[in-house]
Design goal:
Layout lengths: L3 H9 L2 H6 L13 H8 L10 H10 L3 E3 L13 H13 L5 E3 L9 E3 L2 E3 L3 H10 L1 H15 L6 H13 L4 H9 L17 H12 L8 H7 L22 H15 L17 H13 L5 H11 L5 H13 L8
Antiparallel strand pairs: 1-2, 3-4
Length: about 325
């Protein structure tokens, strides 16, 4: 929630990013364009605001960026395959890579980038990018699209870009401006976003007051088509309606089965009154999970079903299941 400038500089030197997008292998003889291209396309300005020459010139600036090397140890003789694998795994796990600069591998020559000329290094490239008006518009548009609705109008982006500039690129202030805007509370924003698998699972557990150690959340999310820490590309998950399909919806309801009816028995749900009448139970569940905003036909169906379940705990879990599986709950 601080300055985006600090975040972008830090991400550029993060070991995972340097390995993923090959900065750690880039030399003045063979500058790698992967990171500078994604830096501009995905992390700052967006397509159409830079040229291929800008990509090539900025790639030269990131050469010589390296990580502290892995301290390799000789593998002891006589180990079994399992012991050998454990030894190698422990050696890699102990590696704490940090960014370092190797001037001998760096291209210190003059570069021309986004209309500026100089012997730029990687930090300079990022600073120049952050000076571009396109960056403020791209980042604020992305933030708004994640929090309110996709494809905001130009007037909305203009206003948020002004907050970006006046606050020194503060993510906190831009998010604040979004959350208090008329657009955020508009009908267009209401239920305009599809919950991601993690948002779906965490939201359900929190709303119902359930206890969990979250073991197996990686398998749960994968069944809904979100492999944690393994996005399909550097652009991340596409999100939106891509989260919902016939197969991924089964993943969602299977998660509800596991959480609400483990080993075939209903769990205790602290947020719902088990001893309440069917009518009161349905009202509480709808108010808690979907803002009490649901079609009258759906409400009647829930009431009809609730009256058929005699056991209070099972009735509460079943109603929670049906509301969480409803179309309304998939949206936020």
């Amino acid at each position: 929630m601080g300055r985006y400038d600090d975040l972008l500089q830090a991400v550029a030197k993060d070991p995972a990013m340097m390995i993923y997008l090959n900065t750690a292998d880039s030399t003045k003889e063979h500058p790698n364009e992967n990171f500078p291209r994604e830096l501009m396309e995905l992390f700052s300005m967006g397509e159409g605001n830079y040229t291929e020459d800008d990509v090539r010139e900025s790639a030269r600036a990131f050469t010589g960026w390296r990580l502290t090397p892995l301290q390799r140890r000789p593998i002891p003789q006589g180990l079994s395959d399992r012991e050998r694998n454990e030894f190698v795994s422990q050696m890699w796990a102990a590696w704490q890579p940090e960014w370092r600069f190797d001037p001998e591998l760096h291209d210190g020559g003059v570069k021309t980038f986004l209309g500026r000329t100089g012997p730029f290094g990687g930090e300079d490239i990022i600073s120049i990018i952050l000076e571009q008006p396109a960056t403020g518009r791209f980042i604020t548009r992305r933030l708004f699209s994640e929090l309110a609705y996709r494809d905001p109008g130009e007037e909305t982006v203009d206003r948020l870009a002004e907050v970006w500039d006046s606050s020194g690129h503060s993510v906190r202030e831009v998010v604040r401006a979004i959350l208090v805007s008329d657009e955020f509370y508009s009908r267009r924003a209401y239920r305009s976003l599809v919950r991601s698998p993690v948002e779906f699972a965490v939201g359900a557990v929190r709303a119902l007051g359930l206890e969990t150690d979250w073991r197996g959340i990686d398998r749960v999310a994968a069944a809904m088509d979100q492999r944690l820490f393994e996005p399909p590309s550097v652009a991340g998950w596409p999100g939106g309606v891509a989260w919902l399909s016939s197969s991924t919806f089964f993943g969602r309801v299977n998660f509800l089965d596991t959480v609400l009816f483990p080993r075939g028995e209903a769990v205790d749900i602290p947020a719902l009154q088990h001893s309440a009448s069917p009518e009161a139970l349905v009202d509480t569940a709808l108010r808690l999970l979907v803002d009490d905003t649901i079609a009258s036909e759906s409400r009647e169906s829930l009431l009809t079903f609730a009256r058929t379940v005699a056991d209070p705990r099972e009735r509460a879990a079943a109603i929670a299941y049906l509301v969480l599986a409803s179309p309304e709950y998939q949206l936020a």
